[in-house]
Amino acid sequence: MTGFLVPPGNAEAMASRIEQMLSDDKPRREMGAQAAKAARMRFNLEQQVNKYLHWYQEILEEWELGKERGHALSNSE
Question: How far is it, in rounded angstroms, from Cα 63 to Cα 72?
């Protein structure tokens, strides 16, 4: 678990969870460690590079499709 969900606009529930986290060190540390692990897995360099490569490939494919249809922008525009 990496955190708690509280109902939107429910300040009392939010305050209760904050108090809980401030008063108990062990769950706070465990949640922090889990959140850090999740972030490392989600945002690692290899995944980010692959996402950019996929994005660039999509852009190139759209550009090529537009070029075939006579809609691609040229460098002179």
Answer: 6
Q: Which amino acid is at 43?
A: F
Q: Shortest CA distance to 21 belongs to which of 6, 37, 8, 9?
A: 6
d(CA 14, CA 6): 6
The Cα–Cα gap between 41 and 30 comes to: 17
Predicted TM-score of the model (pTM): 0.52
- For each of the chain's 77 residues, which pLDDT tens digit applies? 888 999 999 999 999 999 999 999 999 999 999 999 999 888 889 989 999 999 999 999 998 888 888 775 555 54
